[in-house]
Amino acid sequence: MSLGNPTPGCYSGAMSEHPISNIRNFSIVAHIDHGKSTLADRLIQSTGGLQEREMVEQVLDSMDIERERGITIKAQTVRLDYKAKDGKTYILNLMDTPGHVDFAYEVSRSLAACEGSLLVVDASQGVEAQTLANVYHALDANHEIVPVLNKIDLPAAEPDRIKAQIEEVIGLDASDAVPISAKTGLGIDLVLEAIVTKLPPPKGDETAPLKALLVDSWYDAYLGVVVLVRVIDGVLKKGADITMMGAAARYSVDRIGVFKPKMTDQAELGPGEIGFITAQIKQVADTRVGDTITETRRQTASALPGFKPAQPVVFCGLFPVDAADFEDLRAAMGRLRLNDASFSYEMESSAALGFGFRCGFLGLLHLEIIQERLEREFNLDLIATAPSVIYKLALRDGEHIELHNPADMPDIMKIEEIQEPWIRATILTPDEYLGSILKLCQDRRGTQVDLNYVGKRAMVVYDLPLNEVVFDFYDRLKSISKGYASFDYNITDYKAGDLVKMSILVNAEPVDALSMLVHRTRAEMRGRAMCEKLKELIPQHLFQIPIQAAIGGKIIARETISALRKDVTAKCYGGDVSRKRKLLDKQKEGKKRMRQFGRVEIPQEAFIAALKMDS
């Protein structure tokens, strides 16, 4: 079925009453906890998207993990109908985006489907590190930005100071920033009017060949793969034969609709509209985020630029506790990969842990969320190995290789130099915690780039090696600053470093899951801490167990777990001492033999706790 040229005016019934000039596509960007999802709730409520009895807090945070942690992980979309003061009815397509640095790829994806953004700033806390990062994402996408001051009902709110701060730090005119309280609903009508009057409508030609952006896709147990699309040109109709240009896959559309926030079916989607389609898609790989969807018989001349592929920053191995679950883990990862384009994995095997996967993540929170989702949504028990970053090795024979897993490191004699990734970190903190934060950055081999003041708060810019950040930097930063410091980073380049591979030996056998690359100056401290931790965690056996940290052939730290002594003389009541002596000697012989053949059982909790070690 070819789209042909639709007759003007007969467009979908929906579009004739809603011309393209009455559509507004916008996203909400802000720092973590500044009230994005709560504002989205109020907008849905005040436009009648859900009835009063259906409203729950954080409507768009549909995952259990999002609700429990109080963060947004997946960008969600909803379509609202709003009757403005000028008497016209507008279609508002809202994208709620995550605030955390690990989910920045979700933000950039959502922004590509919109023309404007609401910048939400907490009227008591002001501009934070992630506020800046997300504003720059929005400016890169050529967005019109409307500043919104949230939480003005708090006693600590200082709207005038925060307006001045927005102008000073971001360079946006905040004189007519909208003051609201998303919690109580104060000022929501002003936000809706600002969206309609200040944000531009989308542009598009409904007579042109179909061109639509694939914004997101996820797996639904009943519908198969559901695809979220933003139509740029042309009309997407039910029953149309479509082609995904990047994946070169062809399908027939069998359902079209929008989220209001419930799924609501429609006959078609026109230019500027955001909605979903299903097309009996079975292949996860066919729906690549950022791809261009066009009609098979009347294709668009050029594909959309798409999105930069997300670059994994942190790698770790995920292994099933029970080896029989390996195939289930493979299937679960395939489904999760569809839902999360930035998550990558490849198979690997380990002597200690059996078969599993080497996975790439955008940060430690991302790693934690993926692991939790695999365990919850697919009922898997997993062990994660120590997180590591990608190192670049220059070998003496001129070859250059990337090292994802410290266990695969070639012989040290073959290596010319090891390069590690560095990041440029921006930290905003209240003045009283500045000294502790500078010390933390110095301890992590950081070099200071800049330090200035934004109002009452210090803004510190540091260059830091990424492998010092992935372990527990964020947790340490939050505990030092009592949660007030905010942190944002981007990878700058690779620099050569004096790095060594530290192996952990348990009973003289290397445990590859615990090996890691560390800076030579920190190796002894890290090794000693790891040995002490394992000594607490590995249960006693009937023989003595040495735990050692080694660099090459040199042991740098050691702890010993003493043998569990069974009282073999318990049944000797008095009598000749030689009888007891004989039993003790017999026990000694047995222990010697056990030590030769002794295999140490390391419990799974020991792995996980050792990897979470606080340095």
From TrEMBL:
<dbReference type="GO" id="GO:0045727">
    <property type="term" value="P:positive regulation of translation"/>
</dbReference>
<keyword id="KW-0378">Hydrolase</keyword>
<dbReference type="Pfam" id="PF06421">
    <property type="entry name" value="LepA_C"/>
</dbReference>
<dbReference type="InterPro" id="IPR004161">
    <property type="entry name" value="EFTu-like_2"/>
</dbReference>
<dbReference type="InterPro" id="IPR031157">
    <property type="entry name" value="G_TR_CS"/>
</dbReference>
<dbReference type="InterPro" id="IPR000795">
    <property type="entry name" value="T_Tr_GTP-bd_dom"/>
</dbReference>
<protein>
    <recommendedName>
        <fullName>Elongation factor 4</fullName>
        <ecNumber>3.6.5.n1</ecNumber>
    </recommendedName>
</protein>
<dbReference type="GO" id="GO:0097216">
    <property type="term" value="F:guanosine tetraphosphate binding"/>
</dbReference>
<keyword id="KW-0251">Elongation factor</keyword>
<dbReference type="GO" id="GO:0005525">
    <property type="term" value="F:GTP binding"/>
</dbReference>
<dbReference type="Pfam" id="PF03144">
    <property type="entry name" value="GTP_EFTU_D2"/>
</dbReference>
<dbReference type="InterPro" id="IPR009000">
    <property type="entry name" value="Transl_B-barrel_sf"/>
</dbReference>
<dbReference type="InterPro" id="IPR035654">
    <property type="entry name" value="LepA_IV"/>
</dbReference>
<comment type="function">
    <text>Required for accurate and efficient protein synthesis under certain stress conditions. May act as a fidelity factor of the translation reaction, by catalyzing a one-codon backward translocation of tRNAs on improperly translocated ribosomes. Back-translocation proceeds from a post-translocation (POST) complex to a pre-translocation (PRE) complex, thus giving elongation factor G a second chance to translocate the tRNAs correctly. Binds to ribosomes in a GTP-dependent manner.</text>
</comment>
<dbReference type="InterPro" id="IPR038363">
    <property type="entry name" value="LepA_C_sf"/>
</dbReference>
<comment type="similarity">
    <text>Belongs to the GTP-binding elongation factor family. LepA subfamily.</text>
</comment>
<keyword id="KW-0648">Protein biosynthesis</keyword>
<dbReference type="InterPro" id="IPR005225">
    <property type="entry name" value="Small_GTP-bd"/>
</dbReference>
<dbReference type="GO" id="GO:0005886">
    <property type="term" value="C:plasma membrane"/>
</dbReference>
<keyword id="KW-1003">Cell membrane</keyword>
<dbReference type="InterPro" id="IPR000640">
    <property type="entry name" value="EFG_V-like"/>
</dbReference>
<dbReference type="InterPro" id="IPR013842">
    <property type="entry name" value="LepA_CTD"/>
</dbReference>
<feature type="binding site">
    <location>
        <begin position="150"/>
        <end position="153"/>
    </location>
    <ligand>
        <name>GTP</name>
    </ligand>
</feature>
<keyword id="KW-0342">GTP-binding</keyword>
<comment type="similarity">
    <text>Belongs to the TRAFAC class translation factor GTPase superfamily. Classic translation factor GTPase family. LepA subfamily.</text>
</comment>
<keyword id="KW-0472">Membrane</keyword>
<dbReference type="Pfam" id="PF00679">
    <property type="entry name" value="EFG_C"/>
</dbReference>
<dbReference type="GO" id="GO:0043022">
    <property type="term" value="F:ribosome binding"/>
</dbReference>
<keyword id="KW-0547">Nucleotide-binding</keyword>
<dbReference type="InterPro" id="IPR027417">
    <property type="entry name" value="P-loop_NTPase"/>
</dbReference>
<dbReference type="GO" id="GO:0003924">
    <property type="term" value="F:GTPase activity"/>
</dbReference>
<feature type="domain" description="Tr-type G">
    <location>
        <begin position="21"/>
        <end position="203"/>
    </location>
</feature>
<dbReference type="Pfam" id="PF00009">
    <property type="entry name" value="GTP_EFTU"/>
</dbReference>
<feature type="binding site">
    <location>
        <begin position="33"/>
        <end position="38"/>
    </location>
    <ligand>
        <name>GTP</name>
    </ligand>
</feature>
<dbReference type="InterPro" id="IPR035647">
    <property type="entry name" value="EFG_III/V"/>
</dbReference>
<dbReference type="InterPro" id="IPR006297">
    <property type="entry name" value="EF-4"/>
</dbReference>
<dbReference type="GO" id="GO:0003746">
    <property type="term" value="F:translation elongation factor activity"/>
</dbReference>
